[in-house]
């Protein structure tokens, strides 16, 4: 890791507020172009204060970001639309910070954070879902480049993305975890083809990405050759720890929508639905308080494994509540607004119709690690239960049944 | 121990109470756990359940004298430690974890809250020191928002007559706190266990480690503690705080059930493998762990709002009793099932946990009762009676 040494004592909350005010004084949000403001914010170290100085941060604890965000929001400053660039912020950035060279960090992080360059993730393949390490996309060394050929799937934002984080097989003769290397791939390079992948909602939020002899310079490798699995762990860890900085209010999620329908439509109420609603409300409140517990733990510098529990619980709850909503609505739920294929530019779990929410929630227990895989992780890494017998651990990848 | 809710965390930006355990609480937990490990291992608990002394009064005196568990939330001026219900909740977790047969809930929680409310410093001090114990004479199943009990009447000469069934922690008690109806309405009395006209009949209880008794009063002399609204509020406050603390006890039960089961599945072999390596079992334990993680946050929130006098305490306690009751029952049922045959035997402690968890789920209002109360608090009304 290459981070600039940070010798001075960390600024207090007041000093941090002063920094924000200095930024606002030199770049009035009312008159400064959005991108210009975001670039200036990055350069002032106020983008993500837990990042190092010079890379958009100040080397502060993550919790200090709350102070900055609150000041900027109060001043009406534009944000970087985090929902549109979630993969860059949540997955690519921590990985580049951990494994990138200083040249890579300087090149990629600023436009990533400002949203000028959107990122996507080329991990899953048709033959490598839960068993990601079985992936078969090949990267073959050719001079200063690698030549990448294969097929990736479940890639959100691929049609908007400038860059991708990619795992590919560089050595098929060793067991599957050992022959993988991690790259940054230019989505505009020749040989990259993006096709929308339509889901059961009717939308194509995801894509298939075909890679046919795409040349990737060796300077865009993250980590050592053959170390890609370890690098990918950083990415995946961060995917599951994206807990926000602020406390979440009660009824903030989908339960709030169901509760509102209940309050506004007495004619739809039945005793059975009432019982279900109260149970779901309690479960939603338990999930909210668990996130608050986790947030307090992170703020106190004690991250715990409860992040995987939160993701898992969120998926189940979303599915149950969205199913409840349709049962409550009755006849209205028999209609679906529009099956026309569209390509959304951001994911919105709460938007759309109740029918869309119900269908979209089915993906929550699959994307980012299926609930079954999360259960395995909890059982083995948190509870310390023994692993299942593994038949593929010591077999060269090329000899595995495909 | 300091008066303020002690915490090392900055929660300036936190809405609501601190949910984490402070260092002081960690130390308190370690002291209670060490003492229970020495004097309350489960074989000791199991050996006691069929004797004439189902409560371990000696253990309770020791916990009170050596760790001060009986008076944590009592102000120092009244003989306590001047801490808060947060710290008491940590004790509740540990006593639940050990299914300890001590009159904690009845004396250090229910009676102490009621006596603090009516301002009886002398008796509070005795309870805080552990030299005497008290029990609140209501059925253990009574919910905080239940109507004021009418089973005992005040008769001329300040004597009480009537009956109360299924009272917890009354068998070892020196004093009974009795809600009674007088001519002026609700009243709360203190009645000496040894007084004329007081009869306790031990009940064969589902929960072997918190034995109930039926109380009969025949012109028993009582000392008036409060009447009217003050009596009603004292009773309601006791049951409400009790319900919050009970959730922490249930959390302790669930955590111990999971830990014991995980240990067993790691070592038990069938089909040439540790049975804990089978995915069907691992997934059940992972689900349980997720539930316990949530139950911890819910229970800490409930006791935090009670300790802080937070106006959200009503919702928080109803949520806690609704969520944690069912989770603790599930955890102990899984404990029995996943231990297989041995979990179904008397000689294994699983049944002590199952019975405590099921009784706790009914105690101080069932999960269903608390959900019904919640409906009014959060504006999710039910179906009108006539449709």
From TrEMBL, chain A:
Top-rank taxon of the source lineage equals Bacteria
Q: Which residues form the Acyl-CoA dehydrogenase/oxidase C-terminal domain?
A: 226-383
| Chain ranges of the Acyl-CoA oxidase/dehydrogenase middle domain | 120-212
**A Pfam cross-reference name:** Acyl-CoA_dh_1
Look up the signal peptide feature and give its range: none
Q: Coiled-coil ranges per the record?
A: none
Task: Name a GO molecular-function annotation.
Answer: oxidoreductase activity, acting on the CH-CH group of donors
Cellular component GO terms held in the UniProt record: plasma membrane
What the entry lists under Gene3D superfamilies is as follows: Acyl-CoA dehydrogenase/oxidase, N-terminal domain (1.10.540.10), Butyryl-CoA Dehydrogenase, subunit A, domain 2 (2.40.110.10), Butyryl-CoA Dehydrogenase, subunit A, domain 3 (1.20.140.10)
Give the protein family: Belongs to the acyl-CoA dehydrogenase family.
- For this entry, the protein name equals Acyl-CoA dehydrogenase
Q: Which organism is it from?
A: Goodfellowiella coeruleoviolacea
TrEMBL record, chain B:
InterPro entries listed in its UniProt record: Acyl-CoA_Oxase/DH_mid-dom_sf (IPR046373), AcylCo_DH-like_C (IPR036250), AcylCo_DH/oxidase_C (IPR009075), AcylCoA_DH/ox_N (IPR013786), AcylCoA_DH/ox_N_sf (IPR037069), AcylCoA_DH/oxidase_NM_dom_sf (IPR009100)
User: Domain of life here?
Assistant: Bacteria
Q: Does the keyword Acetylation apply?
A: no
Q: Which Gene3D superfamilies match?
A: Acyl-CoA dehydrogenase/oxidase, N-terminal domain (1.10.540.10), Butyryl-CoA Dehydrogenase, subunit A, domain 2 (2.40.110.10), Butyryl-CoA Dehydrogenase, subunit A, domain 3 (1.20.140.10)
Q: Which SUPFAM superfamilies match?
A: Acyl-CoA dehydrogenase C-terminal domain-like (SSF47203), Acyl-CoA dehydrogenase NM domain-like (SSF56645)
**Cofactor names:** FAD
Q: Name one GO molecular function term.
A: flavin adenine dinucleotide binding
Task: Please list the residue ranges annotated as the Acyl-CoA dehydrogenase/oxidase C-terminal domain.
Answer: 236-375
Keywords (alphabetical) are: FAD, Flavoprotein, Oxidoreductase
The residue ranges of the Acyl-CoA dehydrogenase/oxidase N-terminal domain are 23-119
Q: Which Pfam families match?
A: Acyl-CoA_dh_1, Acyl-CoA_dh_N
The entry assigns this protein to a family as follows: Belongs to the acyl-CoA dehydrogenase family.
Q: What is this protein called?
A: Acyl-CoA dehydrogenase
Q: Which organism is it from?
A: Goodfellowiella coeruleoviolacea
